[in-house]
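Obj: model holo form, ligand = NDP.
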Amino acid sequence: MGGGALMDLGLQDKVAWVLGASSGLGKASAQILANEGAHVAMSARDEAKLEAAADKVGGSAFPLDVKDGEAIISTASAIEERFGGFDILVANAGGPPPGTFDSFDDDALYDAFTLTTASAWRATKAVLPSMRARGGGAIVYITSITTKEVVDGLLLSNMMRAAVVGMMKTLARELGPDNIRVVCAAPGHHDTPRVQQLDEARSKAEGKPVDEIRARMASSIPLGRLGDPLEFGNAVAFLASPAASYISGVSLTIDGGQLRSISM
Ligand code: NDP
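Output (holo structure tokens):
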């Protein structure tokens, strides 16, 4: 490790699979990985939207509902056939619905588990044989700042993402000997289509202009603004890259300094 060299992320020709990749944080992560020279397989449900995103990013579309365990296996096989294997997995999907304990039944519980926790587990299972055969890899689970500080009204997200962090910590230990690094990227507030929708809903509910809602959120963040999804993508690409070769078992918050907790 000589001093003074320019940092090269070392992503050229790596094979990355990004789930939830047609919009927002997943798409931005795919974009930066592709910009850095990786072959990026992108998955999400809406095929037309995914094709458009893959065109823009310079990736390849592999439509998939992450709640479908068999589809995860068959999609992983198709990607492996096309690109020869996996170096990077970025596991992501839409978040579970908001609500409190009284508002959910067992079906909602299992649905959120399947969407957030089981999808990360299953995608990991699907890529592991290839990563082991290639002598290593990197797995990034996109989670949320709710894994560091619970958010009221987001019970299912608070629960299911915490389970992903537990899995990440355990897998970092179990897979280290295989040279596979496992981390979480925990976003604070980023200006994605989903967040724009939520802001509009909040604006209607409160009868206040959407600009006021967004200014209030921005003022609660030390950097004074929401994150650009590409700023999040930069962090994911770094974590997934050989430049982060000694980083494993961590959950990195990307939130403009928003969280107050000192136990990170
Ligand atoms: P977006 O809604 O903008 O993007 C979500 C992506 O996931 C889309 O590509 C969507 O495509 C895909 N997706 C959703 N459900 C599934 C599914 N069942 N199977 C496959 N793909 C799916 O969300 P964001 O980028 O804003 O957020 C990404 C994740 O990060 C979410 O879990 C969110 O809760 C979390 N997060 C986001 C924050 C933010 O500030 N943006 C803050 C904290 C957490 P399609 O619908 O076509 O499948």
